[in-house]
Task: inverse folding
């Protein structure tokens, strides 16, 4: 027998994004809030991130991942927000029906007035990037290795090579060194790192771990267990340069080669996705192409700081609450936000909401290549209206700026806003 439920707001995912969105919606007067989480606990990836550096923006203090998660877990408990753990969501429909199941309630149909997608992201695997060679034991994604080391307490290896310089890979380089392993190198295909500058300094430079830019793994050797990898240099077109091969003996290869937003459920519901972010296309309230379905956190676009995840989720929870309370009004004209020169993407992609009390609209973006001494320009029809200055911009570090509401209020018939990030002296 199928259990049928009805809730005002259903949040899919109990990580930092899902919890912050649920908490904000509750504070805005939505009492029937339900969080569906497939794991046995709330917190998402945070419980396995035992290093510090979290919360500096949001809580104004430095926390570990578990401490950051616990702040929100306690808030959810105090407000009696309903949570179903060990619950797998199977499908979402356009009319906002959710089909899920767990061992306690069985198969459920949950009818929601609004839905927040907060499923997070997953790691790219060895199969996804097609590394040549054998498939022995000892080849893991960096996030899996982090869980095995920090939660399960396993020692994964003594000689380690890390492919990719994403933040998890950089952090695991340090973590493996602290566990007594010899981290022989972090190998990066691109001419720049994919993680935060602070992680390069604190996790590699402070521990004398070599960083090989413009290099990649071109072969994996080993039968039962990985024995070595072949590392080769690549040219400016990322093609392997013959004759540059070097063999590194190792018993562990960790992969930190990118994260992919978990949007299988979004696709099932017919949500339109952005080809650059791999997440939903949204307006400033984080509403997707389907009315009443919102998205936030790493399912929308991959963040580097959990503080930004929380900030974005609070926006989402606020607007989801307004939608539920019928205080959700759209302008007759939708304004597109376009990623211009040197900008890989901008979120949100559209502005179309009416909010007379709003003073600013946060924009999140990433550059397509490293830049120094830059101007972030907001333009309408080729005319620059506002400029933000920064010392540098890196693809691994998300840029967060506020679009003042006066720009929209003072301009009529705005159809498109363009964001360019220009190096001074370069045109």
Result:
């Amino acid at each position: 027998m199928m259990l049928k439920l009805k809730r005002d707001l259903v949040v899919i995912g109990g990580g930092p994004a899902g919890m912050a969105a649920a908490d904000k919606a509750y504070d805005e007067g939505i009492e029937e809030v339900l969080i569906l989480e497939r794991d046995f606990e709330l917190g998402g990836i945070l419980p396995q991130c035992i290093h510090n550096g979290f919360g500096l923006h949001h809580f104004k203090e430095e926390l570990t991942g578990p401490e950051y998660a616990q702040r929100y877990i306690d808030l959810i408990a105090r407000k009696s927000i309903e949570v179903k753990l060990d619950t797998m969501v199977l499908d979402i429909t356009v009319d906002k029906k959710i089909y899920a199941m767990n061992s306690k309630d069985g198969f459920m149909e949950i009818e929601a007035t609004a839905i927040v997608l907060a499923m997070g992201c997953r790691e790219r695997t060895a199969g996804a990037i097609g590394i040549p060679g054998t498939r022995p034991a000892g080849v893991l994604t960096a996030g899996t290795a982090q869980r095995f080391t920090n939660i399960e307490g396993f020692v994964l290896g003594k000689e380690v090579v890390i492919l990719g310089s994403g933040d998890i890979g950089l952090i695991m380089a340090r973590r493996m060194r602290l566990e007594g392993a010899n981290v022989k190198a972090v190998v990066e295909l691109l001419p720049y790192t994919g993680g935060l500058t602070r992680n390069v300094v604190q996790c590699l430079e402070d521990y004398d771990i070599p960083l090989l830019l413009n290099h990649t793994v071109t072969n994996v050797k080993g039968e039962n267990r990985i024995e070595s990898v072949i590392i080769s240099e690549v040219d400016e077109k990322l093609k392997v340069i013959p004759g540059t091969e070097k063999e590194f003996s190792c018993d562990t290869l960790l992969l930190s080669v990118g994260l992919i937003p978990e949007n299988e459920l979004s696709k099932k519901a017919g949500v339109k996705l952005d080809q650059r972010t791999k997440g939903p296309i949204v307006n400033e309230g984080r509403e997707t192409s389907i009315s009443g379905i919102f998205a936030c956190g790493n399912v929308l676009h991959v963040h580097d700081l959990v503080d930004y995840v929380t900030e974005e989720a609070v926006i989402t929870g606020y607007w989801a609450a307004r939608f539920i309370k019928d205080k959700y009004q759209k302008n007759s004209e939708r304004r597109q936000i376009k990623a211009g020169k040197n900008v890989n993407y901008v979120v949100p992609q559209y502005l179309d909401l009416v909010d007379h009390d709003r003073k600013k609209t946060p924009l999140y973006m990433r550059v397509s290549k490293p830049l120094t001494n830059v101007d972030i320009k907001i333009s309408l029809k080729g005319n620059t209206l506002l400029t933000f200055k920064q010392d540098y911009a890196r693809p691994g570090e998300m840029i967060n700026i506020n679009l003042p509401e006066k720009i929209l209020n003072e301009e009529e018939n705005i159809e498109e806003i363009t964001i360019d990030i220009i190096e001074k002296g370069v045109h």
The domain at 125-257 is CATH 3.50.50.60 (FAD/NAD(P)-binding domain). The chain has three domains: 1-122+259-328, 125-257, 331-427.
